[in-house]
Amino acid sequence: MSDTPAQPGELIAAVDLGSNSFHMVIAREFHGEFQTLERRGQKVQLAAGLDEHFHLSEEAQQRGLDCLREFAQRLQGMDPARVSVLATNALRAARNRQEFIERAEAVLGYPIEVIAGREEARLIYLGVAHTLADDMGKRLVVDIGGGSTEFIVGERFEPKALESLHMGCVSFTQRFFADGKINEANFERAVAAARQELQNIESQYKQLGWQSVVGSSGTIRAVEQTLVEFGWTTEGISKQALKKLRKQTLQFETLDDVVLPGVKVERRQVFIGGLAILTAVFDTFGIENMVYSDGALREGALWDLFGRSDHEDVRQRTVRSLKERFYVDEEQAERVKTTALALFAQLRDSWQMTEASASLLGWAADLHEIGLSLSHSGFHKHGAYLLQHADMLGFTRQGQAKLAAMVRCHRRKFATGEFDSVTSTRRKQTIQLARLLRLAVILNHGRGAHPVPVPVATCNGDDLRLQLPDGWLQEHPLTAGDLAAEVDCQQAAGMKLEVL
User: Fold this and answer.
1) Which helix (H) or strand (E) holds 267?
2) pLDDT below 70 — which residues of the chain?
3) Is beta strand 212-216 parallel, antiparallel or unpaired with respect to 138-144?
């Protein structure tokens, strides 16, 4: 590796807002690989701040904000397109997550994306796969987090099965060891509960099969380090060594008593919950040996950033798959996309849009008729529902929310309240993109029956003006009528549109 200082344009960063800890890794690109320059992690225990109504407490929010203030100093000045900030199970579950995200984005200075469980699993596998030998044969990857545990069966760099189960070292410790006492009965209850969760995937995963088992993240790292320190294994985790550790751990009376070589002070409180889950995983899948990988979610996020700049974006593959599955009219989608992006190109600088905004608009155009496969009546509503709730690998929850809102509002009434699910920092630009999508759909209403010119688009703030070639509106009265109605729709939504 080169010793020359990294240039700002070479740096990439991934921040993982986990349920137990927040982590940040900063790296630089180097000959198609990345060289890690800095790692930081801090115990935040966001999941511990969720009450019975799944509201994140002010204390937990403050712990997160304090950590992000420190991260912000290191990330300052980096290109937002090269910084990935991902939130996992605790914020997936929190009903007031939008409140925290808006506060956190103000502190951090970068957008925060909440990812679905299967997307988390995909990124974990990507991070793990890049740390292992690129050999043949399937592997089972297990990642025990604070609020969820991810399971992936994959081969080389391709996942074959992805799943995220609602069990983690923080949530299980709170659930089965709430009084801080350790005893065998509670441990057995925790193991049984984890086995019950695993029944949902046991048959499918065993049918796929695997040749090796890999574990990642904090719990599994701590278990391996402890086993090595005790001399029960030289590396990895064996079934027999895990049984010895279980016996050793159950000798402690309280969570605070868990003093084990390899278990950091900040992990003692949640170690027992993670150990119960790992025990159930070994029992359910009949695992004899598990190796540990340093790769995890944040490393996968870095590789995903590389992939989006150098290879096919997985999101594009997801969009293509949805178009095929729901029989989208490819030619019409392409016509709408071409017009929408041509309008975007004219307004991009004035509206301070980025390449990411262009991608979002293109995908919305690709999928705006996805609901037609269900029903022509209200198909924009059906499409929005599909995009809001489908498993869309590569997309974050916010990304899906933006797509869904744009598709929901691409025709009929321009209900800007549909964008309330988009964080305030991104709401205005998403509405602007939806305006362009609506206009592109109207202009291409003839579905290729006649050529459609690209209007000259200008703006003064949010006031938008379209200039069509002389005489074109008179020659196409149906489109002229649709555009006149659109002027009224946008005015009703508080936006000015002028069509000449």
Assistant:
1) none
2) 1-9, 31-32, 133-136, 308-312
3) parallel
Give Cβ neighbours of residue 426 (< 8 Å, ≥ 6 apart).
111, 398, 402
Cα separation, 218 vs 230, in Å, equals 18
The DSSP secondary-structure symbol of 77 reads: T
Pairing type for strands 83-87 and 11-17 reads: parallel
Q: What share of the chain is helix, strand, coil (3-state, %, to 5)?
A: 55, 15, 30
CA atoms within 13 A on the CB side of 346: 17
Tens digit of pLDDT for each residue in 180-214?
Answer: 999 999 999 999 999 999 999 999 999 999 999 99
Measured distance CA(347)–CA(50) in Å, rounded: 43
Amino acid identity of residue 471, one-letter, is G
Residue 127, H or E segment: helix 117-129
Strand ranges (E), 351-474: 456-460, 463-467
Please give the backbone phi and psi of residue 113, each rounded to the nearest 5 degrees, phi first: -115, 130
**Strand, coil or helix: what is 181?**
strand
- Report whether CATH 3.30.450.40 matches the domain 8-114: no
**Sign of the CA dihedral 471, 477, 479, 482?**
positive
pLDDT reported for residue 317: 84
Max Cα distance, the chain (Å): 87
Distance (Å, whole) CA 485 – CA 500: 14
User: Does the pTM of the predicted model rise above 0.90?
Assistant: no
**Residue 2: what residue type?**
S
Task: Look at residue 426 and give its three-state secondary structure.
Answer: helix
What pLDDT, on a 0 to 100 scale, did the predictor assign at position 1? 40
Confidence (pLDDT) at 330: 95
Q: Is 161 helix (H, G, I), strand (E, B) or coil?
A: strand
Q: Which helix (H) or strand (E) holds 238?
A: strand 237-238
Residue pair 187/272 in contact (Cβ under 8 Å)? The answer is: yes
The per-residue pLDDT for 132 is 80
Taking the C-alpha atoms of residue 18 and residue 20, their distance in angstroms, rounded to an integer, is 5
Please state, in angstroms and rounded to a whole number, the distance separating the CA atoms of residues 97 and 48.
Answer: 14
Statement: 118-299 belongs to CATH 3.40.50.720: no
What local confidence, expressed as pLDDT, does residue 480 receive?
A: 94
Q: Are residues 28 and 34 in contact, defined by beta-carbon separation less than 8 angstroms?
A: yes
CA-based nearest residue to 191, from 261, 246, 251, 258: 246
Q: In whole angstroms, what is the distance from residue 459 CA to residue 28 CA?
A: 39
Asked if the domains 8-114 and 118-299 are classified in one and the same CATH topology, the answer is yes
Question: Domain residues of the chain, as ranges?
Answer: 8-114, 118-299, 312-452
The pLDDT value recorded for residue 307 is 72
CA dist., res. 104 & res. 97, Å (int): 10
Helix (H, G, I), strand (E, B) or coil at 444: coil
Q: Give the CATH number of domain 312-452.
A: 1.10.3210.10
Burial 144-178 (b: 16+ CB within 10 A, else e): bbbbbbbbbbbbeeebebbbbbebbbbbbbbebbe
